[in-house]
């Protein structure tokens, strides 16, 4: 035990927790105690070890209806409230005692923490510790997490700022204390990896309240590794939100990128606004260094900065009469009066003036977009969106080019902007509706399910299909409102059909963004209960991209499993168009595969395609999945799928999507 004693004696966390701590062996004898316990109870290091302690031993535990053996076997902390504790100075105090069992070197031990309150006499060491404890509670937010990073304790200061309640926060995963963007999740994972390696983590962290509001903290995360199998973690946090806001304001005022010396994105937005206000015509040039992450990964930070500085020099030399800004890590934006032919000449200029790092030329190319004001776009936001759309097109073609907007680009961007504008009104006025496309079981010929499809017929822009609507809604954040509309409408429809004796299952489509909402599962369950829906009558369709991301994000998997346990089923939509993974098929609660319509359309054209589709069907059935073929339009396609023993089909050969009333008549 001496090795363990030395470890505990040197453990910063134990010796700095402001409460007495004593560790007992499985016989109830003292094996170690911290300095606070030595001072409060006046224990002697030489004589106390190996002796019983009257305020936590097998007899004392039994008096509080907690058998000693049960304490040693428990995997969770156990609390003893209002225990009368004798102080070393002769006084008495009532305290809460928290115990936690752990294993070390094959033996069980019991750690006890004595939360001495401030009823002790003024000036005593115990009262000093009590004041220190209350001072910490007043100054710091404090949360405890178990080995799975689930919340086991949160102090009042944390609850107040984060807007959680004690009942709701216990058992929540650490990820729900942060935002759910990819960047934020990667940040949290870096903290957890450090803790798992036994390292204390300290730094600034952006967190989210229960309502999704952002706040900033100075975080110290401490691993408490009691044994290889037993660990928990403490987060001590100081609110620095106001400081961060002040810092951001100062950065916006400064306007200067510290590495390149260029003005930054804030100044860019201001300059565009000034040009627009003055009615000045200009070209908005957006440049993105191709494969920057590849270039960066083979170098260190100093080399990366040198690369950016040298690239900036070439921009200054070539675009000497333009406003040049650094708009992102590897993105640059310019406001320039120069014509297109001159701007496009920057690419050969780069080739003629290569960048050398350590005597070696860096193979650097750029993708660019030219958007004109006011001919192409009329606001900073739309200039940026048009630039990103154009650069994506350039990069899809291999990069190393500077492109302008085509007539098709103009039409597409204008329609997209109009859809974004009109969508707000459509949701407010409930102009969206659900159409239902039947799925027929090939064995029985019965309609067992329908897929719910969002339809929007706008007075100004006409029909907007789901394929056009959903990507725009995901980009501007309105996918949550559309998802709520679909869910509420589908559940209400199931209730109505049940009353009419129509037994159908409805499939709804969901996005990864919706499931990153930590309340998604709860909201869905509440809707089903409110409409008295059988959870088995609801199926959620997810894409392969959704499945790949869900596999890596534990909170999403937990929500999916929770819904599946209630009876909700999941289908993998558009199967065969992405990167199928055996792993997520095993990890996620998927019960059906839907073969994408683009694949089904080719079933009669090539023998190899027929073999591939047959293989997909047999693969799905071998895993006990129901296999559904989408986009079936001809009798020849239908008969081939029947021979291949596909379970169900969906497509125009059965029916076009219909509203609820049309479907009810069609079923008769």
Give a verbal description of the structure.
By secondary structure, the chain is α/β, with parallel strands linked by helices. It folds into four domains: 116 residues, 2-Layer Sandwich (Beta-Lactamase); 121 residues, Beta-Lactamase (2-Layer Sandwich), CATH 3.30.450.20; 150 residues, Reverse transcriptase/Diguanylate cyclase domain (Alpha-Beta Plaits, 2-Layer Sandwich), CATH 3.30.70.270; 247 residues, EAL domain (TIM Barrel, Alpha-Beta Barrel), CATH 3.20.20. Helix content is 43%, strand content 26%. The chain contains 29 helices and 27 strands. Helix 22 packs parallel to helix 24. This is Diguanylate cyclase/phosphodiesterase with PAS/PAC sensor(S).
What's the structural blueprint in terms of helices and strands?
Layout: H1 2-9, H2 12-16, E1 21-25, E2 30-33, H3 35-40, H4 45-48, H5 58-63, H6 68-73, E3 78-86, E4 92-104, E5 107-116, H7 125-139, E6 141-145, E7 151-154, H8 156-162, H9 166-169, H10 182-196, E8 201-208, E9 214-225, E10 231-239, H11 241-254, E11 263-264, H12 265-277, E12 282-289, H13 292-297, H14 301-318, E13 323-326, E14 331-336, H15 340-344, H16 346-352, E15 355-357, E16 360-362, E17 366-373, H17 380-396, E18 401-404, H18 407-428, E19 432-441, E20 447-458, E21 462-464, H19 466-476, H20 479-499, E22 505-509, H21 512-515, H22 520-530, E23 538-542, H23 544-552, H24 554-566, E24 569-575, H25 582-587, E25 590-595, H26 597-600, H27 607-622, E26 626-629, H28 635-643, E27 648-649, H29 660-667
GO biological process, one term: regulation of DNA-templated transcription
Protein name: Diguanylate cyclase/phosphodiesterase with PAS/PAC sensor(S)
InterPro entries: Biofilm_reg_signaling, EAL_dom, EAL_sf, GGDEF_dom, Nucleotide_cyclase, PAS, PAS-assoc_C, PAS-like_dom_sf
């Amino acid at each position: 035990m001496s090795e363990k004693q030395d470890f505990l004696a040197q453990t910063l966390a134990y010796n700095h927790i402001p409460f007495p701590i004593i560790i007992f062996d499985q016989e109830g004898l003292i094996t170690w105690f911290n300095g606070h316990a030595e001072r409060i109870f006046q224990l002697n290091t030489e004589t106390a070890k190996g002796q019983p302690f009257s305020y936590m031993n097998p007899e004392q535990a039994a008096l509080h209806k907690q058998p000693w053996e049960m304490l040693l076997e428990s995997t969770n902390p156990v609390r003893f409230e209002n225990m009368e504790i004798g102080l070393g100075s002769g006084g008495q105090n009532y305290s809460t005692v928290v115990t936690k069992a752990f294993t070390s070197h094959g033996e069980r031990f019991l750690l006890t923490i004595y939360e001495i309150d401030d009823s002790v006499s003024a000036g005593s060491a115990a009262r000093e510790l009590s004041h220190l404890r209350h001072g910490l509670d007043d100054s710091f937010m404090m949360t405890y997490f178990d080995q799975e990073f689930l919340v086991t304790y949160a102090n009042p200061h944390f609850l107040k700022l984060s807007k959680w309640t004690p009942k709701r926060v216990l058992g929540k995963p650490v990820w729900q204390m942060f935002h759910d963007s990819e960047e934020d999740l990667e940040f949290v994972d870096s903290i957890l990896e450090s803790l798992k390696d036994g390292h204390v983590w300290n730094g600034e962290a952006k967190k989210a309240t229960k309502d999704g509001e952002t706040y900033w903290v100075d975080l110290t995360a401490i691993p408490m590794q009691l044994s290889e199998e037993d660990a928990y973690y403490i987060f001590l946090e100081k609110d620095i939100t106001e400081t961060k806001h002040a810092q951001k304001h100062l950065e916006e005022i400064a306007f200067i990128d510290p590495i390149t010396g260029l003005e930054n994105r804030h100044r860019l937005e201001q300059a565009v606004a000034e040009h627009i206000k003055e009615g000045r015509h200009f070209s908005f040039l957006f440049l993105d260094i191709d494969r920057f992450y590849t270039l960066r990964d083979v170098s260190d930070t100093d080399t990366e900065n040198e690369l950016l500085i040298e690239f900036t020099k070439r921009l200054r030399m070539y675009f000497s009469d333009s406003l040049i800004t650094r708009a992102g890590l590897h993105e640059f934006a310019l406001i320039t009066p120069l014509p297109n032919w001159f701007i496009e000449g920057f690419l050969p200029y780069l080739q003629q003036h290569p960048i050398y790092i350590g005597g070696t030329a860096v193979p650097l190319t750029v993708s660019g977009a030219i958007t004109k004001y006011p001919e192409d776009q009329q606001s900073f936001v739309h200039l940026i969106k048009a630039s990103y759309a154009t650069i994506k097109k350039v990069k899809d073609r291999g990069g190393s080019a500077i492109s302008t907007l085509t007539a098709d680009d103009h039409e597409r961007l204008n329609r997209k902007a109009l859809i974004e504008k009109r969508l707000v009104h459509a949701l407010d006025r409930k102009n969206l509706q659900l159409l239902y496309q039947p799925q027929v079981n090939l064995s029985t010929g019965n309609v067992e399910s329908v897929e719910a499809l969002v339809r929007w017929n706008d007075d100004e822009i006409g029909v907007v299909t789901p394929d056009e609507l959903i990507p725009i809604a995901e980009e501007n954040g309105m996918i949550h409102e559309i998802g709520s509309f679909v869910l509420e409408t589908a559940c209400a429809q199931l209730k109505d059909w049940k009353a009419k004796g129509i037994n159908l299952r409805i499939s709804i489509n969901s996005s990864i963004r919706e499931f990153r909402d930590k309340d998604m599962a709860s909201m869905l369950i509440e809707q089903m209960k409110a409409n008295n829906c059988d959870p088995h009558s609801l199926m959620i369709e997810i894409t392969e991209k959704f499945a790949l991301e869900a596999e890596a994000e534990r909170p999403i998997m937990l929500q999916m499993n929770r819904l599946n346990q209630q009876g909700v089923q999941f289908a993998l939509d558009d199967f065969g168009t992405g990167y199928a993974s055996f792993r997520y098929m095993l990890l996620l609660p998927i019960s059906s595969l839907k073969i994408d319509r683009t694949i089904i359309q080719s079933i009669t054209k090539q023998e190899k395609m027929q073999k591939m589709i047959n293989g997909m069907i047999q693969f799905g059935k071998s895993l006990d999945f129901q296999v559904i073929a989408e986009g079936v339009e001809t009798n020849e396609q239908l008969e081939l799928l029947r021979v291949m023993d596909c379970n169900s089909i969906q497509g125009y050969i059965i029916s076009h999507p219909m509203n609820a009333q049309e479907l009810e008549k069609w079923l008769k």
